[in-house]
Amino acid sequence: MHNKFTKISLLFLAVILAIGGAILEMKTPSSSAANVNVQLFVPSPDCGNGSLQAGEQCDDGNTTNGDGCDQYCIIEMCGNTFVQVNEQCDDGNVDNNDACLNTCQNASCGDTFLRTGVEQCDDGGVANGDGCDSACYLEVCGNGRVQAGEACDDGNMANGDGCTNTCAVEAGYTCSGSPSCCAVCGDGVKQCAEQCDDGKECFDHTPCTTNADCLDFLCTTRSNDGCSATCTTEGGGGARPSEDIIITQITAYPEQRSGAAGTNYDTKYFFSVLTPDNQNHQIVYTQPTLLPTNNQGKGYPYLTLSGIAANTYDITLKSTAHLTSMLDNVYLRTGENLLNFTNPANLPQIGSQVLTAGDIDNSGTSPSTLGDDAINSVDISIMLQNIGNSDTTGNNNRANLNQDTVVDEADLNILLNNLDKEAHY
């Protein structure tokens, strides 16, 4: 009832003042609080006549602002709750820790005053790297802001969530934003800045969780299926088969390697693609440099054979100390392909065959100048010249066939067992 009476009274007062030619004005003081006090101010109709009358704080004979007495005959001063000339705010107090300073200017980062509930610090500047950043947040790991010297900041001090308690990105994660959101590309969950995440796959894009799930023993994120290996969409989100032939793995087990685990089965080879014609091969592609395998005889070269059409080819591999091996009539498709020189049918599973050791003559840097594709007396002569020589790395001396640390009778026996063997074409 009281509120209704007040509203009717205000309306009645407004009508009376309007009829009398007075001005009814609602003045809203500045306030840093959520509740704003609204004052009803009725200017004197005689403000500016030079005579101080009831309702006036001053009257300097004009209605000009900026001369100490404003157009409503109120003294111009900070703290009177009215925003006047040269003031950005006026909350009627002298508290420098709220949104309006006691100079009637808006509080801001860098004004040296700590704004309650808004700023964590204010050192009077806006430079980063001095303990208080340009937005007046303390420069500490764990505040949810990526600051100078930090690679991420997820707002906590926990490890194992992608961002460590020293604000470094953990292995396998990609972090973005502030506070940082960290995700693992390949976990099958689209999150943070990832555009997609279809999990890890084998070479044929079947889902996998470990390397043992794949025929190529490589469970990883893959491209050319609509979601790239870095979790970005491909071709507008649809599958986008590669237009190139890509060799993702070459398996080639060298014969009787007995070196240390770090070097066992390690070899180097040239890889060539030929027309499928046993009588008159034409070279379609030759890898220009020697490629290494890992300690399981596998190479992950990701060779892109641009400009070669999907078709049936004969494929050769020439090792640094082994006879040339050939895969006959292999269909190379666009996209990813596996080559297995330990299985003549190029089946994905690991075969029982190995590369035949002993072709160690010549030392060229191309398939045509490395060895002569036969194990004969020339190779025996080279072996005998190297007997007793050390090979500490296990892969520098081509005569060190078993890849231990010295060329000895064990290497000679391997060669003699393969004497007179020739390359398969």
Characterization of this structure:
With 425 residues, the protein is mostly beta strands. The chain folds into three domains: 19-107, no CATH class; 196-241, no CATH class; 245-417, Immunoglobulin-like, CATH 2.60.40.4130. The protein is built from three helices and 13 strands, in the order H-E-E-E-E-E-E-E-E-E-E-E-E-E-H-H. The strands form four sheets. Strands 6, 7, 8, 11 and 12 form a five-stranded antiparallel sheet that branches. A hairpin with an 8-residue loop joins strand 6 and strand 7. The longest helix has 18 residues, at 2-19. The chain starts with a helix and ends in an 8-residue tail after the last helix. The model is unreliable at 1-39, 237-241 and 260-264 (pLDDT under 50).
